[in-house]
Design goal:
The protein has about 210 residues and is an alpha/beta fold. It has seven helices and eleven strands. Strand 10 (about 185) and strand 11 form a beta hairpin.
């Protein structure tokens, strides 16, 4: 049975954040709010937790997880970013974007695109997500919480618990955080390419 805790969306209580961090570090799968929708997350090095998320979402091995980072200082460890690309990212983060970047050797192979050796990274603008990432001290593997057959993410933590009570370890109730997914921008080529239009305004990348 999953645990449900309510964390203040603007001033997260450190005691509750520490509780969530401990669950992630012990291999738990958590539902947490972001600036675009609720997401499923787990420890970056935990293959078993990642496979649990795959089963929840019914994802095949070709589906890429996103590395959710606290800020751009973590990007250098997981992605190759030149100066021009970094300037664009700096102006768009934190925010509702997922960036496809060339992965470094520090990224676990199971997180990379199998052919292109790329990885998705994002920096959410959400106090709870930021506090959770700060407590972990490293990125989380993550996917949007859209259940099989649904067109939109789940938004009500109590509905989420009813649906996933025996599939996740923790649900963080951070209030309503939206239905729209992130905007996905491929930054691996000389010219950025819009892969999916979501909540974020991609004008700066495409002009």
């Amino acid at each position: 049975m999953s645990e449900l805790i309510t964390i203040h969306p603007e001033t997260p209580q450190s005691r509750l954040v520490d509780q969530a961090v401990d669950i992630v570090k012990r291999g738990g799968v958590v539902v947490y709010p972001t600036d675009s929708a609720y997401a499923l997350g787990c420890h970056i090095g935990d293959k078993r937790a990642m496979e649990r998320i795959r089963r929840i979402r019914k994802l095949d091995e070709k589906h890429n997880f996103t590395l959710v980072c606290r800020d751009l200082s973590e990007l250098g460890s997981y992605a190759h970013v030149n100066n021009q690309c970094y300037r664009l990212l700096r102006h768009a983060t934190p925010g509702p974007f997922t960036f496809i970047l060339e992965a470094t050797s520090d990224v676990p192979r199971r997180l990379m695109h199998p052919k292109r050796k790329t990885v998705g990274l994002r920096v959410p603008d959400n106090p709870i997500a930021q506090a959770l990432l700060g407590g972990l001290g490293e990125p989380m593997m993550s996917v949007t919480l859209i259940l099989p057959g649904d067109d939109y993410p789940l938004t009500d933590p109590y509905d989420i618990r009813q649906s996933l009570d025996h599939d996740v370890d923790l649900i963080i109730d951070g209030g309503f955080c939206g239905l729209e997914p992130t905007t996905v921008v491929d930054m691996t080529a000389e010219t950025p390419e819009l892969m999916r239009q979501g909540l974020g305004d991609a004008t700066a990348f495409l002009s």
